[in-house]
Amino acid sequence: MNFLGSHILSISQFDKNDVKELFRVADEMQPYAQREKHTRVLDGAILGNLFFEPSTRTRVSFGCAFNLLGGQVRETTDIKASAITKGESLYDTARVISGYSDVIAMRHPVAGSVEEFSRASRVPVINAGDGPSEHPSQALLDLYTIKKELNIEDDFDGIRIAMVGDLKYGRTVHSLCKLLNLYSNITFTLISPNELKMPEEIVEELRKSGHEVIETEDMESGLENNDTVYLTRIQEERFEDRNEADIYRGRFRLNQSIYTSHCKPNTVIMHPLPRDSRAEANELDNDLNQHPNLAIFRQTDNGVLIRMALFVLTLGVQDKVHESSVEVKWYTEKRFK
Amino acid sequence: MNFLGSHILSISQFDKNDVKELFRVADEMQPYAQREKHTRVLDGAILGNLFFEPSTRTRVSFGCAFNLLGGQVRETTDIKASAITKGESLYDTARVISGYSDVIAMRHPVAGSVEEFSRASRVPVINAGDGPSEHPSQALLDLYTIKKELNIEDDFDGIRIAMVGDLKYGRTVHSLCKLLNLYSNITFTLISPNELKMPEEIVEELRKSGHEVIETEDMESGLENNDTVYLTRIQEERFEDRNEADIYRGRFRLNQSIYTSHCKPNTVIMHPLPRDSRAEANELDNDLNQHPNLAIFRQTDNGVLIRMALFVLTLGVQDKVHESSVEVKWYTEKRFK
Amino acid sequence: MNFLGSHILSISQFDKNDVKELFRVADEMQPYAQREKHTRVLDGAILGNLFFEPSTRTRVSFGCAFNLLGGQVRETTDIKASAITKGESLYDTARVISGYSDVIAMRHPVAGSVEEFSRASRVPVINAGDGPSEHPSQALLDLYTIKKELNIEDDFDGIRIAMVGDLKYGRTVHSLCKLLNLYSNITFTLISPNELKMPEEIVEELRKSGHEVIETEDMESGLENNDTVYLTRIQEERFEDRNEADIYRGRFRLNQSIYTSHCKPNTVIMHPLPRDSRAEANELDNDLNQHPNLAIFRQTDNGVLIRMALFVLTLGVQDKVHESSVEVKWYTEKRFK
Questions:
Q1: CB neighbours of residue B334 within 10 Å
Q2: Which of A26, A105, A102, A40 is nearest to A68 (CA)?
C-alpha cells in the first residue's frame, strides 16, 4: 500500500511490509507520546473527528494523537441530530466536511458507511469503526502491543495466542485474526461458549493458511501454553435479545488464581477495553491490575502511537516530524511510570 | 460599517463597500484555506463557538476558519442542558462566556436572541443563525459564490437569478434577496408553490428598488435564461404541521434532464445545503453531482473564506495575516481537486 | 502542599501559604488573560476536560485557561452514553484517559468519584465538582475575588461576610467557609430559611476556630455592616422533592433598593452563578447589573486566572510562562472594559 493520501478502511489493505513500516513509524512516535519532546509538524492541519456513535476512548485517542503532532481537532458527536435527519446523504456530508479537514477519523454504526463516505471525501479517511465490520487501528494497536510485549522484531511467525469470550460478535478478535493471518504457523486457541464461536469463515481462512486453530469451551486447558491471552467482553449491544447476553456474561473469567494455575509465566494479558467490571461479568478481574504482564493499558497507550503513525504516513510527514520538534517545558516525571 | 470590534448580526449592516472589503479579504484567505500556507496570526485567540441548537456544518465551518487563522476553539453544544435551565438569563451567559473568548459565533433557535446576547457581550459576536431570522455569513457566502462562479469583479448589477422551492420559510433566500438589493437591475425569478411564496414585503422591497421580480409556479419556464439557479429544501421543521410539508416536498426538482432542457448553458447551480436526497424530496438530483456548474460544494468551501474574513476584519488583523504565515508541511495534493 | 504533580481534590489540602502562592501566580496570569500577551509555555500539552455532567461555565473556563497557556483541550461530555454503561470502572477510565492527557479536569455527579478516579490517574487531576461534595477552584476563585475587591494583601483576618440563601445545599458556601477558616476573627452572617441553614458541623468548626457566626432569617438586619455579601441560588436539583424548592425560591432577594437601604457603601456583591433570573426566584436583581460593586462577572473572570494558576503550579511551569510569551496581534481594546 502507498500510505500517502490513502484512506485506511480495512486491515485487508495491509501486507507485511505495510505493517512493518507502520510499526517503525509508531516506534518513532514514542518520545512525542511520552512528552520527551513535542512536534509541530502538523501545525495548521485540522482533523475532522467525526463520530456518528459515541466512543470516548477511540475519539479521544485519535484527537490526542493529532494534537501530539501539532494539529487541531474539530469534533462532531451530535451529527445524528443534524443534517442527516434532514435527508442529507453521506455523499454530501463527505463533500462538505472534507472541505473543512485535512484528514478525517470516522465512526459510524452501519457497516460499509465509512467506505461509502470515503469515496466522496477529498481528504484521507481513517475508519474508526463501522458497526460490526472493521476498526483497523484497533487491530493494528493489538498487533503492535503483541510485538512490544513479546519483544518481537518483525515477524510474528510461530506465536501462540488464546482468544476468550464473545468471539462471535467481538469485532476486534476478527480483525486481529485477519491481521495475524499475514504471518505463518500461529497457534490460535479459541475459547468461547459454543453459541459465541469465532465465525466459521475466519477459522477456515486461518486453517487454509496453515495455522493451527483449536476451538474449545474449556477455559482451563485452553489457557495452557500461550504467549498471549486476549480476553473480550460479551458484546451485549450486538445481541438481538439482550437478555440472551446474560447467559454468557461471566462464563469465562481470568483472575489471579486462574492465571497462576493455568497460564505459563509471563503470558501477556490483553483486552480491547472497555472491560465489564460489574460483578456479574468481570471477565478480567481487578485482582490482576498490578500484574506486570497485564498489558491492557499499554494497549491503549500504543493506540496513540499507531494513530500518530497513521496520520504521519497518510499525510506524508515522516521525514519532517523530528525537524519540527520543540522542547517540552512542563513536569512529566510521573507521566508513564 | 467599521468592522473592527463590531458584532455581525444582520446583512442589513452591510453596504456595497463593506461587501467589497469583505470579499477582498476573503480572496486573500484562499491560499490558507487551500493549505498552500498556514498563518498563526490569531495564535492565542479563542473562539467561543456557542450552538444552542445543532448545526454541524455551520459549527465546524466557523471552527475550521478560526483554526486556519491559528486560533483555538472552545465549543458549547450542550447549553440547553445546563445553566439556562437553572434560570440563567442571556445577559448573564453573555457576560460570562465573553470573558472566556476573543470572539463568539452563536446560533440560537429564537429570533433576536443573538442580538440580545451581543448587547451584553464584551467581545464581537457573529450571528450563526437565530431561528427563522438572520444568518448573515450564509448570505455573504452565497453572494461570494455568485461572484466567483460568474467571474464578477465588484458589481452584481444586471444578473439574473432564479430561486426555487420553499421561499416562505427558507431563511437563506430571504437574506440573499436583501443582500442583492444593494445592487441594481437584477432579475429575480421566484419559483415556488403558491403557499410557499417569498414574503410579500421582500418582493415589494425588491420591486421598489427597481429590480424585476417574476413569481411563478411553473418551474420549466422559470428556469429559462438565468445566470444562477438557487434551490432550497422544504423547511419541514418550520411548518406548524409537519405533514403539510409532505405536500410540497418533491414538487420542484432539478435534475440533469431538466437542466439540459431548460437552463441556458453554464447556469450556476446553488443550494444552501443540506439538500434532501430522500426519494420523496430530491430537490436537486444526484445525477448532477459531476456537473461542472454544480457549485454547492464550492459554496461550503467559500463559507470558510467568508468566515475567516469576518474574523480577520472584526479582530483587525488584515495587515498581519501574511507576516504570520508559515509553511504547510503535509501532503495536500488531492486537497481541492 | 507541594503543587508539583499533585491532584487538586479538596480545599482541605490548602494552607495559608498554598493560598498565597496560588494567588501570587494568579496575579501573574492577568496580562495573559487580558490578552496583553500570549504564552506558549504549555505548547504540546493536552488537558483532558472530562465532564460526566454538564456545566458549561466551568468546562469552558478550564478549557480557556489551558488554551491561554498554549495547551490543547480534548473534551468529553458524552461519557455517560459510552463505556461506563458497558460496565467500565472509574479505575479503567482513569488509566486510559490519563494516558491521553497531561492533566485532567473532571466533574462527576457522585461525591468521592473524582478522588477515586485520581487514585488511578497517571497525571494530575483537578476536581471540577463532584456532586454535593467539593469544587475547590470555585472556593479559591471566590476568595481571590474577595482579595481583589477588598484590596487585601495576604490576610483575610477580620473581614465580615454575609452568606444568603440556600446554605444547606449550596456547595460553594460550604467550601468558602472552610477556606476562610484558615484565617482569624472573621464574622459570618448566615441568612437563610431555617430549613436551609448552613450544616451544623461547619458552623461548629467556624466557632471553634474563634470566628463569629450569626445565623438569622432576617435579611435586612443581616445585611448590615458587611464587607461582602455572597448570594446563592436555591439548589433545586439537590432537593428530594423539587416542589419543596418552590417554597424557598424568591424568599431572600437583593436588589438596588435593599442594597441602598441596608448594606454599607461599597459592600461587594458576589454570587457563584448561575443566578436564577426567573421572576419567581430573582435572588439577585438585574437592577444591580451596572452597580460598580457587583463582582459576579469579575468572579468568573477570576476563575480563569485561578485555573491558569492551578495548571501552572501542578505542571511546574511558573518560571517559564514569561519566557514563552509572544505578542497578541488582534484588536482587544474593548476586551475587559
A1: 12
A2: A40
Chain B positions touching C75 (Cβ under 8 A) are 75
Residue A85 is predicted with a pLDDT of: 65
pLDDT in tens, B136-157: 999 999 999 999 999 999 889 9
Instruction: Measure CB to CB from residue A274 to each of C46, C87, C315 and give the nearest one.
Output: C87
Neighbouring chains to C with at least 3 Cβ pairs closer than 8 Å: A, B
B242 is catalytic: no
Q: State whether A125 and A143 are in the same domain.
A: no
Whether residue A264 is found in the same domain as residue A176: yes
Residue C208 Cα, gap to closest chain B Cα (Å): 36
Interface contact flag, B102 C35, Cβ < 8 Å: yes
Judged against a pLDDT cut of 60, whether residue B166 lies above it is answered with yes
Question: Which helix (DSSP H) or strand (DSSP E) does residue A125 occupy?
Answer: strand A125-130
HSE toward the beta carbon, residue B70, CA cutoff 13 A: 28
**Separation CA B291–CA C250 (nearest Å):** 63
Contact present, A46 and A71 (Cβ < 8 Å): yes
Residue A314: CATH number of its domain: 3.40.50.1370
Distance CA(A96)–CA(A334), nearest Å, equals 43
- State the ipTM, two decimals: 0.95
Given A58, A145, A228, A314, which residue is catalytic?
A58
Its domain, for residue B69, covers 11-134+303-327
* Whether residue C186 is found in the same domain as residue C264: yes
Instruction: Give the pTM.
Output: 0.96
Tell me what percent of the residues of chain C surpass a pLDDT of 90: 84
Band (B337; pLDDT cuts 50, 70, 90) = very low
CA distance A191 to A214: 8
* Residue A99 touches partner B, C-beta closer than 8 Å: yes
Residues A215-234, mean pLDDT to the nearest whole number: 96
